[in-house]
């Protein structure tokens, strides 16, 4: 979220006030989300940041062995994506998932993460 | 209800003999009867799918067919004897001499591991089977499993009736049978099951939005990647489907969950197969999936922001910024990747699907395989029969009732039909789609017809007058209700609607309009009852013809184990030519263990598997130059060919010749491909040298280079003395229908080692260099 906001600030040269209004409304809307969703969002941000750090590191030292790099990046991306899926399923405002109990959503999340990390461990080499 | 059941229970326990099964059947409730019928049909379809593929086992014996399956059999044998670790790291020095082949890293292990697991399971249950039996029967077993998956898939797309019909159709569809008969131990036998299973799991994931189903579809995709190179179809069709859903506005949260989980986990799992390696992030064929992945992230992020902002104007500016940013980054990344060569372009195998003329000009090896030719209409009719015109009918029904699942099956059907038109081999991939869509057509039609038959079509004459007057009286409301009744096509739906109207006068009106509906229905189509019966009879006739056609096709065309040939003798009796195995066993028993055999690449797998000797080239065709070297040796004069054979350490040369028996898939008919492939790498071999006025001839008028090249000499050595047909001169080639041109052949550097009883395979020994003095 932070990255996008900064870029918006830079690129909206012709409508700075527009961008500021955008900021404020986004911030206020986001403040209204329940805490458990905010925790999931924080987890997603953490995972993406880790992935970005790994890519920068790969840019510095080179990509050998490639399978380890892929394993690392994909584990971060994977767990971020799975967390977003969990957020979608747990969010009370989504009509499609209203009869899915949040415990089941979390259990699915844990199972998928387990498979993801087992495969990543095999792929790390 | 409860009292009645208790009474029944008391009756059955008190009276000693239990009612006969038929009576017990009719005592069940409708739902239980239906379940029983469904389960019984599925069980019969399962057994049918297995049994119809057993023709060649019953006629000949339980053996592996064709060429490619022999390699799979050899690797499975190795796997069961030496364990998975040795198999995964196997370097084979017996093929592609002197290069060798890294088998562990260049095959799709799914089929072998599956067969080995079944073998282990059966052994564990103390059935002492030989691995060859397991290999022979793997494909029919998985075909039976495919019918079950087709049932569930049909149920997911349409309803359980369509599922049953789909299972029945795919059990005997010739397009599928052609590559999954007993003995055809090839990747496709398992891969089609994996393909349909993955698609079913993915559609289920999109329909339910559950992470568990998406995980299951990722595992299905992993199995498909381990089984066949055609997994590229899945990894391109599913992103295309997601794109279509996005564009048509049918996207939902479930789609996001399903695709993302399947893509990330599926990609990671797929990269565990060494042969696939890093292609999912580096190859152009897999970039569509990645592109759609990023597009989905951007799309749903924008959707979320729009939902949070609740203000149109602010969102527009945000949208503008983000879109330009995302598109520019994406295009830049793609451009840099493709230009720098990091993202490899589409490989020839798959590029020739998009541009069918590509292979003919650039890659003769791909063009020479007979399965890669474009499909003729007769092949379509042969392999699909009535499904060919039921396919558009099914498409119509799918469009009438669009949902996420029907959009998927329509896309699968259309794309696979396009590819089936480009390459004969891909009719196999289209077969499940065609069966499913046709099943929808059949099921919907039969359902409509039977519901027409079941409505009480006879309106009593007394009511008809009253019905027409009541129509005029309450015209608008009754018409609206009648229209609604007509669109709900079952009596139960009508009853439900009646129950929902809670006033008595509404009930009276409803009863009047129902009679009016029946009366009006009867008045508008007086013969609809008879028409429906006639159409139903027609439909069942079509289906029975389909069944007869499929059985005939399987029996006549697809059950021959190409390694054993059969023909009709002069008196109508069957003659079996077992020359191939005769030659391979001669090699096995009469040549030194380290002998190297040179032959055209078609026979490589069989020679290594049955003859157990090292070959120069085999069916893997991964090294075009090596094959071109062999092609050059076959097309040169004997001295030059001898030099090439010396450089390759060749001890024996194997040639297939069909002139005595009239067998037309022999090396002389394949010779022009040898010339083309050899000439593709060594410009000294020119195709026009072997042709006369563009015509390929082997008789007196043939080109001199043709009459003296190594292949000609080896094939026709001593053939000039043979009388093949009554009334024809000696040396009459029955496969080409001409008398050969060069009857007096002398070999200088080779000597004949073995010729099989019908002259189909001829083996020559390469003489060591002469002593200098």
Summarize the structure in words.
The complex is a heterodimer of chains A (125) and B (773). The longest helix of chain A is centred in the middle third of the chain and has 27 residues, at 35-61. Chain A is flat, with a radius of gyration of 18 Å. Chain A is 81% helix and 0% strand. With 125 residues, chain A is an all-alpha fold. Chain B has 773 residues and is mostly helical. Helices cover 64% and strands 5% of the residues of chain B. Chain B has a five-stranded mixed beta sheet, with helices on both faces. In chain B, helix 21 (387-400) packs across helix 23 (427-454) and helix 23 runs antiparallel to helix 28. The termini of chain B are far apart. The A-B interface holds A 4, 7-8, 11-12, 15, 18-19, 21-22, 25-26, 29-30, 66-67, 70-71, 74, 77-78, 81-82, 84-86, 88-89, 94, 96-97, 100, 105, 108-109, 111-112, 115-116, 119-120, 122-123 and B 209-212, 214-215, 218, 252-254, 256-257, 260-261, 264-265, 267-269, 271-272, 278, 281, 305, 308-311, 314, 317-318, 321-322, 325.
Question: Top keywords for this entry?
Answer:
heterodimer; A: 125 residues; mainly alpha; B: 773 residues; 5-stranded mixed beta sheet; two-stranded antiparallel sheet; 64% helix
The average pLDDT value of chain B, as a whole number, equals 85
What percentage of residues of chain B falls in helices of 4 or more residues?
55-70%
Sketch the major β-sheet of chain A: none
Individual helix count of chain A: 5
- Seen as an oligomer or otherwise, the chain set is heterodimer
Q: Any idea what the radius of gyration of chain A is?
A: 18 Å
- Class derived from helix and strand content of chain A: mainly alpha
**Uncertain ranges of chain B:** 1-16, 458-504, 516-521
* Coarse shape of chain A: flat
Number of DSSP-assigned strands of chain B: 11
Catalytic activity (chain B): a di-trans,poly-cis-dolichyl diphosphooligosaccharide + L-asparaginyl-[protein] = N(4)-(oligosaccharide-(1->4)-N-acetyl-beta-D-glucosaminyl-(1->4)-N-acetyl-beta-D-glucosaminyl)-L-asparaginyl-[protein] + a di-trans,poly-cis-dolichyl diphosphate + H(+)
Domain STT3/PglB/AglB core (chain B): 596-653
Subcellular location (chain B): Endoplasmic reticulum membrane
Family (chain B): Belongs to the STT3 family.
